[in-house]
Q: What sequence folds into this?
């Protein structure tokens, strides 16, 4: 009996090694950087994973996922400030708001492939951002951000370990299930050859739409948690300027892998932290330049992302384009 | 053959790529009694464009396509597949990032329109009987299959679910002689189940299997016969 269960665990571990690695990294991360940086690394990692579901697996690069992340943040904030004291309900409102806007954007954006998909997603992001800083400024706080009345407050480290880590685990497992499912296989198939997908009786538009809904759910749900952690929402989270961070995380870490976006997010946030420690708050001026440099190096020497480069170094052979 | 027994009817079909006209007023029909209808023509004569138009990949500029009495001219390709109009393009298309089993599974889910895994696995088992070589490759990524194995998988995927007409675009192109023989025997076997509309450069296969023949030249149908002896003779090749 004992042998069987340890064998099962071994099987589970090898099949889901990437998930275990991500969880272990995030469990130990607050030992090396402040918790708030660890939280941002985790949140951007999941949001980048959402971008990766569409790009790495669906072949559609989005420059609008900051909108989905931001709507998760603001949806929860609005619910807590104006509607309810129930945190679960507020999280549901945040996730639903994100899903609704994701569903609306999908109707238009998925009519075309790149670059139109990227541009329509960006257009949606810009439109909502303008709404947020303009007509809705009295509700959103515009660029001053929005403070949130939390009914319960947890110590930051406790919140990280007891709420964020379990949610990360759930989202990773859900992503794995989604990508392994028939609809996940079809999303990958659609990115390879839409004509063949049609010839076996599937409507590629519906497949991509479901992919975008799942991706919106990931970004929105993690956004809700950021609001609960900070008790504040900054306009940056919904700003189109956040999209390059998410795309950077996917490309640097490795598109088409689950672990890649988290590697990218860790690099971005640790870089941010180091610059902050060395140069103070105006360090962000240099950050974008360094990111640009990183991308140039990456495009020349590590096109598949750092995870693939590390994998090749250890195993001696290439990872496939898509890893699930 | 323009009667109620027709499975597929194409009338006055013209296709343009931009300003260039590729197909000119195509008239053709495939009947329920036909087993293998062959389409012959030189490269660039418009054969593939005709098949792609019928499959719904290309929207014709004018004309009408009817399948089982239903006007499908503007119907999306995936809906035509569900009607049983299956199209297999020439380039051995499979999904290389997926395993052989996953390729079969997504095809079965699509063409059977079911989420019942027992029915899906039963259908997969059925095509594995036809292509036993795929059985031991089920867990392999399609990326690592040989050309012949990819073509087997390509065919196996399209043969899932009900098939009313199978359209094949040069299925033996680039295959080794042993595999050409295998596919030729396979077509011979499956033609009793449903009609096949076949583009093929391998003349012996046409002579052996076809019971109806169309010749295409410069975007037009220039010759048609339903006479098996004429097809066996091969004299019509002089017209191309």
A:
């Amino acid at each position: 009996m004992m042998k069987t269960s340890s064998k099962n665990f071994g099987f589970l571990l090898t099949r889901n090694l990437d998930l275990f690695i991500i969880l272990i990294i995030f469990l130990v991360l607050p030992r090396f950087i402040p918790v708030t940086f660890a939280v941002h690394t985790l949140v951007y990692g999941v949001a980048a994973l959402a971008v990766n579901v569409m790009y790495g697996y669906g072949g559609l690069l989005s420059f609008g996922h900051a909108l989905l992340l931001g709507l998760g943040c603001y949806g929860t904030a609005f619910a807590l400030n104006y509607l309810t004291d129930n945190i679960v309900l507020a999280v549901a409102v945040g996730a639903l708001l994100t899903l609704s806007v994701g569903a609306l954007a999908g109707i238009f954006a998925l009519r075309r492939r790149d670059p139109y998909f990227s541009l329509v997603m960006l257009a949606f992001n810009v439109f909502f951002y303008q709404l947020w800083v303009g007509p809705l400024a009295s509700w959103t706080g515009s660029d001053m951000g929005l403070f949130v009345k939390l009914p319960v407050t947890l110590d930051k480290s406790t919140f990280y370990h007891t709420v964020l880590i379990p949610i990360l685990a759930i989202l990773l497992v859900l992503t794995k299930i989604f990508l392994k499912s028939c609809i996940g296989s079809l999303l990958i198939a659609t990115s390879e050859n839409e004509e063949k997908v049609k010839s076996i009786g599937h409507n590629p538009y519906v497949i991509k739409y479901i992919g975008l809904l799942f991706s919106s759910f990931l970004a929105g749900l993690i956004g809700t948690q950021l609001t609960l952690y900070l008790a504040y929402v900054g306009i940056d989270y919904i700003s189109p300027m956040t999209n390059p961070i998410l795309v950077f995380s996917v490309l640097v870490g490795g598109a088409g892998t689950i672990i890649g976006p988290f590697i990218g997010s860790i690099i971005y946030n640790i870089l941010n932290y180091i610059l902050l420690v060395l140069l103070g708050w105006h360090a962000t001026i240099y950050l974008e330049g360094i990111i640009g440099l990183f991308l140039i190096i990456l495009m020349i020497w590590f096109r598949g992302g750092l995870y693939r480069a590390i994998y090749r170094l250890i195993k001696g052979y290439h990872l496939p384009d898509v890893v699930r | 053959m323009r009667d109620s027994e027709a499975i597929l009817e194409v009338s006055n079909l013209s296709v343009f790529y931009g300003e260039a006209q590729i197909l000119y007023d195509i008239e053709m029909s495939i009947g329920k009694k036909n087993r293998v209808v062959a389409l012959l023509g030189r490269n660039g004569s418009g054969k593939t464009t005709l098949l792609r138009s019928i499959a719904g990949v290309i929207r014709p500029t004018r004309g009408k396509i009817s399948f089982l009495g239903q006007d499908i001219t503007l119907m999306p390709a995936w809906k035509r597949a569900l009607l049983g109009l299956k199209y297999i393009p020439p380039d051995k298309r499979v999904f290389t990032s997926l395993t052989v089993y996953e390729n079969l599974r997504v095809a079965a889910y699509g063409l059977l329109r079911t989420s019942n895994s027992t029915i899906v696995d039963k259908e997969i088992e059925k095509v594995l009987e036809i292509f036993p070589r795929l059985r031991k490759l089920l867990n392999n990524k399609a990326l690592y299959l040989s050309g012949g194995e990819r073509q087997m998988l390509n065919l196996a995927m399209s043969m899932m679910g009900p098939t009313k007409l199978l359209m094949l675009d040069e299925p033996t192109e680039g295959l080794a002689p042993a595999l050409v023989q295998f596919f030729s025997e396979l077509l011979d076997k499956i033609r009793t189940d449903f009609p096949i509309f076949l583009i093929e450069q391998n003349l012996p296969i046409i002579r052996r299997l076809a019971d109806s023949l169309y010749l295409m030249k410069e975007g037009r149908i220039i010759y048609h016969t339903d006479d098996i002896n004429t097809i066996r003779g091969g004299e019509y090749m002089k017209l191309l």
Q: What stands out?
A: Chain B touches chain A at residues 55-57, 76-78, 81-82, 86-89, 93-98, 102, 105-107, 109-111, 113, 115, 141, 143, 157-158, 160-161 (CB under 8 Å). DSSP finds eight helices and ten strands in chain B.
